[in-house]
């Protein structure tokens, strides 16, 4: 199987909402929830994709030849490339019933592990889904990052302890899921959390705690105050609040606020190894990618995941070669020209 075959299969297996567009930019599916689109006008999703295209790579091949390595270390784990799969929930509702959340997460975890990296796994109304992903991470000797929704203090702490016991090398919370009214409609409301509540939870967890859904410098400082080891700059794929800025647009100010004090990851519109390069050049240590992994799984299960990650790694390696960056640490701000406005 090759990656084009994966996409062809995905078109047969996904529907009716997602069309597996050649360019996954959020335009055809805008406002489509259920489905993969951004909320309302879809601008939160669309902007993140489009603004990444405004960042250009600075080509320079006049240098002493050197080997290129995409390896890096994140949260104490050496990974083959600075790319994690993002958590996606309710896949049967948004994509198709060919997979449910548990079978999707299992394929995602296994495929990412075989490609030398890890997945953030999702959480939802059914507790057995979270329990199942915890067991899958245990079987992979901790290669996964369980992601918990902002439920009640007691439930979050209980799930974080379960995640820690699985051997997971980090635990996350998608704090931006506080805007998912669909969960309340199913009898499991979520809500924002204070710095004090987050601090109490994080203080009782021994592994790195990551807060996903940070979109301002002030939010990043609050995450740091709460004791988080890392953040994900994310607008939840544009699915919880319409008309937000793009994630790459706010990244520099967040890096200025907390860079060097915690690990900074980013998601939103990342599709290729070139996008990964751009995010790192602007200050992130790594990225999360969401929707393309849905295509990979529906089109090729764990093999599809590996093929997609191999593609991203090859693209990242080529970008590094053509800009003179031999290591991830050498991907610096000078390697890109950013046309972003605030």
TrEMBL record:
Cofactors: FMN
Active site residues of this protein: 236
A Pfam cross-reference name: FMN_dh
Binding positions for FMN per the UniProt entry: 212, 234, 236, 267-271, 290-291
Superkingdom: Bacteria
InterPro entries cross-referenced by the UniProt entry: Aldolase_TIM (IPR013785), Alpha-hydoxy_acid_DH_FMN (IPR012133), FMN-dep_DH (IPR000262), FMN_HAD (IPR037396)
Keyword Cell division tagged: no
Protein residues bound to glyoxylate: 239
Ranges of residues in domain FMN hydroxy acid dehydrogenase: 37-341
GO molecular function per UniProt: FMN binding; isomerase activity; oxidoreductase activity
UniProt keyword annotations, A-Z: Flavoprotein, FMN, Isomerase, Oxidoreductase
Catalytic activity as recorded in UniProt: (S)-lactate + O2 = pyruvate + H2O2
Family under the similarity heading: Belongs to the FMN-dependent alpha-hydroxy acid dehydrogenase family.
Designated name of the protein: L-lactate oxidase
């Amino acid at each position: 199987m090759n990656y084009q075959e994966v996409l062809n299969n995905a078109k047969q297996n996904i529907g009716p909402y997602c069309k597996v567009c050649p360019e996954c930019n959020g335009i055809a599916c805008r406002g489509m929830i259920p489905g993969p689109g951004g909320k309302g006008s879809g601008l939160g999703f669309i902007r993140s994709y489009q603004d990444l295209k405004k960042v250009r790579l600075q080509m320079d091949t006049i240098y002493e030849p050197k080997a290129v390595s995409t390896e890096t270390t994140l949260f104490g784990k050496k990974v083959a490339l600075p790319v994690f799969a993002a958590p996606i929930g309710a896949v049967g509702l948004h994509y198709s019933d060919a997979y449910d959340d548990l079978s999707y997460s299992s394929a995602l975890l296994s495929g990412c592990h075989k490609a030398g990296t890890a997945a953030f796994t999702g959480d939802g109304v059914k507790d057995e889904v979270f329990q199942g992903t915890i067991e899958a991470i245990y079987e992979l000797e901790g290669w996964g990052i369980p992601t918990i929704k902002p439920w009640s203090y007691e439930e979050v702490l209980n799930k974080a302890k379960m995640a820690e016991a699985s051997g997971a090398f980090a635990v996350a919370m998608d704090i931006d899921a506080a805007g998912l009214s669909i969960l309340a409609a199913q009898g499991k409301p979520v809500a924002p959390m204070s710095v004090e509540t987050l601090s109490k939870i994080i203080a009782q967890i021994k592994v790195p705690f990551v807060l996903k859904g940070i979109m301002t410098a002030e939010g990043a400082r609050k995450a740091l105050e709460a004791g988080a080891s890392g953040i994900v700059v994310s607008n939840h794929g544009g699915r919880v609040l319409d008309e937000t800025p793009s994630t790459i647009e706010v990244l520099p100010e967040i890096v200025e606020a907390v860079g060097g004090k915690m690990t900074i990851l980013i998601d939103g519109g990342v599709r290729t190894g070139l996008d990964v390069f751009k995010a790192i050049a602007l200050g992130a240590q790594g990225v999360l990618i969401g929707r393309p992994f849905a295509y990979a799984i529906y089109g090729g299960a764990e093999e599809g995941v590996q093929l997609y990650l191999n593609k991203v790694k090859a693209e990242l390696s080529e970008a590094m070669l053509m800009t003179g960056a031999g290591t991830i640490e050498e991907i610096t701000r000078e390697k890109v020209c950013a046309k972003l406005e605030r």
